[in-house]
From TrEMBL:
Entry EC no(s): 5.6.2.1
Gene Ontology CC: one annotated term: nucleus
Organism listed in the record: Coffea canephora (Robusta coffee)
Pfam families tied to this protein: Topoisom_bac (PF01131)
Family classification: Belongs to the type IA topoisomerase family.
Location of the Topo IA-type catalytic domain: 1-43
Enzyme class: isomerase
Job description of the protein: Introduces a single-strand break via transesterification at a target site in duplex DNA. Releases the supercoiling and torsional tension of DNA introduced during the DNA replication and transcription by transiently cleaving and rejoining one strand of the DNA duplex. The scissile phosphodiester is attacked by the catalytic tyrosine of the enzyme, resulting in the formation of a DNA-(5'-phosphotyrosyl)-enzyme intermediate and the expulsion of a 3'-OH DNA strand.
Protein name, entry field: DNA topoisomerase
């Protein structure tokens, strides 16, 4: 995924309320967090 596409996905996740502001330093998730169901449809 290109950086631009990655940012677009992050912005979409933010707009739908799944993540906090995409340009923060928050980059850790619980090992139990399954993000595939969120990310795959955005491809």
């Amino acid at each position: 995924m290109s950086p631009a596409h990655t940012m677009k996905v992050a912005e979409d996740l933010y707009q739908t309320g799944f993540i906090s502001y995409p340009r923060t330093e928050t980059d850790r998730f619980s090992e139990k967090t399954d993000l595939q169901w969120v990310v795959v449809p955005l491809r």
